[in-house]
Design a protein that fits this description.
The protein is an all-alpha fold and about 200 residues long. The protein has two domains: about 25-105, Cytochrome Bc1 Complex, Chain D, domain 2 (Orthogonal Bundle); about 115-200, Cytochrome Bc1 Complex, Chain D, domain 2 (Orthogonal Bundle). The chain is about 55% helix and about 0% strand. The chain is built from eleven helices and no strands. About 35% of the residues are buried.
Amino acid sequence: MKNLFSVATAMSLWLVMIASAQAAGGNVAAGQAKAAVCAGCHGADGNGGADPLWPKLAGQDAEYIAKQLGDFKSGARKDPIMAGMAAALSKTDMKNIGAYYESLKAKPGAARDAQLAKLGEKTYRGGNAKMGVSACMSCHGPTGHGIPPRFPKVSGQNAAYTNRQLLAFKTGSRTNDGDIMTRIAFRMSEQEIKAVSEYMAGLH
């Protein structure tokens, strides 16, 4: 009888752990249904739409996506389109959408300007000691896959989107990163920002 009780207890704990893991990680199927409206800008497969200013989300960390959606909803990150899209989302919706996009396979990107990308590689891998700019790979990794959930994946991202976000950090119009990127981008020249964005587009 004691053994049966132990087995039942163990099974109950196991089921609770599974349920907790699913709740923490989000539901991919529910996220897919909720993200149907997102396909217009981010693509049916999460690899971006027609406008390069819209980001690729496929393969991005689920927690990072959920945080950004929360920031759009609260106004911590400002974008009139995304504020409207996130307004009706619950925290569970955000987790589910994040889980869905993380489950999708990211397609490799490509740099269009080899010379500019080469310049960007220097900053990405070595930073700019003179200006106090840290190497991008110290947070985003040698291959640009990030350190989840705080530091996002940047490899293969649209250069135009990355460039726009770095400029937003530089000017202080985007500040939802705990001031890390704000401080770094502030010290970067616009040419460096453009070059790093180009390099990351082809990084994988």
